[in-house]
Recover the amino acids of this structure.
């Protein structure tokens, strides 16, 4: 499975960005797609997840501001990020899971200026 993420960039606090991720390869068995992020000098953290049945999970820090959505047939996932804060600055990674295996994309950088 290969994952390609798009949509990072520089935005002012309070602004919005939309991250997209597309899976390719052996995607039929993917049952969960996630977004992680890693800020400078911090541990990587799970931001949001969506299952093939469209159940979602959000980290407390992004609830009410971020929305994850996905196309289960195409195995694409979108993270709509609103009301961005400087603390959302990080490299965001798309991941896909099946059979207990997690695949990682290359990461896309998000910078929120104050």
């Amino acid at each position: 499975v290969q994952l390609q993420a798009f949509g990072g960039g520089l935005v002012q606090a309070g602004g919005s960005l939309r991250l997209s991720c597309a899976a390719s390869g052996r995607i039929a068995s993917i049952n969960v797609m996630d977004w992680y992020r890693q800020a400078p000098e911090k541990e990587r953290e799970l931001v949001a997840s969506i299952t093939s049945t469209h159940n979602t999970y959000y980290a407390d820090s992004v609830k009410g501001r971020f929305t994850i959505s996905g196309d289960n047939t195409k195995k694409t996932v979108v993270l709509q990020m609103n009301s961005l804060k400087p603390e959302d600055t990080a490299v965001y990674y798309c991941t896909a899971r099946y059979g207990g295996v997690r695949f990682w994309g290359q990461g896309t950088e998000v910078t929120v200026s104050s």
Observations:
- The chain has a mean pLDDT of 95.
- The longest strand covers residues 90-98.
- The two ends are 37 Å apart (CA to CA).
- The CA atoms of residues 13 and 112 lie 6 Å apart.
